[in-house]
Amino acid sequence: MRLPAIVLRGAGDPDQLRLEDVDVAEPGPGEVQIRHTAIGVNFHDVYVRSGLYHTLALPGIPGIEAAGVVTATGPGATRFRPGDRVAYITRQYGCYATARTIDEDALIPLPDGISDELAATHLLKGLTAYALLHEVYAVKPRDRVLVHAAAGGVGALLCQWAAAKGACVIGTVGGLEKADFALRHGCSHAILYRDEDFVARVNEITAGEGVQAAYDSVGKDTFFGSLACLAPTGHLANFGQSSGAVPPFEVSLLFKKSNSLSRMSVFVQLRHADHRREVAQQLFKAFAEGVLKPGPMQKFALAAAAQAHRAMESRARMGSLLLVP
Ligand SMILES: NC(=O)c1ccc[n+]([C@@H]2O[C@H](COP(=O)([O-])OP(=O)(O)OC[C@H]3O[C@@H](n4cnc5c(N)ncnc54)[C@H](OP(=O)(O)O)[C@@H]3O)[C@@H](O)[C@H]2O)c1
To answer: Domain named Enoyl reductase (ER): which ranges (predicted)?
Structure first.
């Protein structure tokens, strides 16, 4: 069977994302075939397309998150039946496609009440937020935490979940509309970092005490500022590099306030399928109970993946992006 998919033949600008017909393999032992209904677009996809990451063998189909329906099962695949709704994240790429064949262990069953669009746009972001808040630095009631890109996909989930755990959340945002969004999604304070020095503002808000944890996905532009915002024994959870890679630095910088630093990968943190499924259930429960509210979702046809990438790279956007085959 040949069906349309986005194929990246060489790294570069968004126009490198082109629609082609590709073979969809019959499911082998332990595999299932799924038809995608919604495909998440993540910042990771931009790193891959632009050539910052060389983790997808070219030519290749990008995409690390999707939802869909099982259409066929291979020998020995017993977890799912045709018609089951599923979602998944994967380091193997291949999500920007109409259909695919995949190891059944990768899949997470979707409960009623969680739409395909919600799952395809919030599974990766939600698992990331869960791992950061519960495993990398376990947020406690009355903690003060700093979240950069607080109106972004992962950022808004971090803010809401940290606030639900009783933390005081300070978010940084790139504009007034984002500040308003962040304040409605878990932040007690929203810092307009283009207008004010976020380190000075955090210092002021925390009366010089600093934050117990800083969740930093921006990287190059914020790393040292985030470090400066930490309280004694505070933790810096760097988990992305939207502004570029963090340059090499002296580890002894952590010594002054006995700080710690992590650089989490959700794929490594949640590498065991059982653990990932369990965390996904917690995530779906948090959405079902209204602890987490999804932000706006902007939809593009699969063929318009280049437009979606332009939207992703434009810092004007809020919420999440998805492709519909
Ligand atoms: N480690 C992991 O396992 C893992 C998993 C998932 C995601 N991530 C990372 O989490 C981050 C957020 O992902 P997301 O998909 O939810 O994206 P997002 O936060 O919705 O978008 C990125 C935001 O970062 C801010 N930003 C600051 N400097 C920027 C720059 N130079 N260029 C572009 N944006 C900049 C912008 O918000 P403002 O306008 O408010 O500044 C922008 O909207 C990404 O860095 C991603 O790689 C990591």
So the answer is: 12-323
